[in-house]
Automatic annotation (TrEMBL):
The lineage of its organism: Eukaryota, Metazoa, Ecdysozoa, Arthropoda, Crustacea. It comes from Argulus foliaceus. This is Uncharacterized protein. Keywords: Membrane, Transmembrane, Transmembrane helix. The keyword Transmembrane applies. The chain crosses the membrane at residues 32-50.
Length: 65
């Protein structure tokens, strides 16, 4: 191998890795936002009765932490 060829191959690999990484992080963000939105809707739906609301918050805390 000559050094230039190896360097170019390395750069291409890094570039491809970055593209995959960006796609993955976008997908993770979408999942994260969907999770927040869905949990918000759950809390909002349960909000009509105070006891259920309290329960859902306890459940959410168990789920998150």
């Amino acid at each position: 191998y000559d050094g230039v060829g190896v360097g170019q191959k390395g750069a291409m690999c890094v570039e491809r890795g970055n593209k995959v990484g960006v796609q993955r992080s976008i997908r993770d963000k979408i999942k994260f936002y969907l999770l927040i939105i869905s949990s918000f809707f759950v809390v909002y739906a349960e909000y009509t009765s105070a006891n259920k609301c309290k329960q859902s918050f306890i459940l959410l805390n168990h789920w998150w932490f």
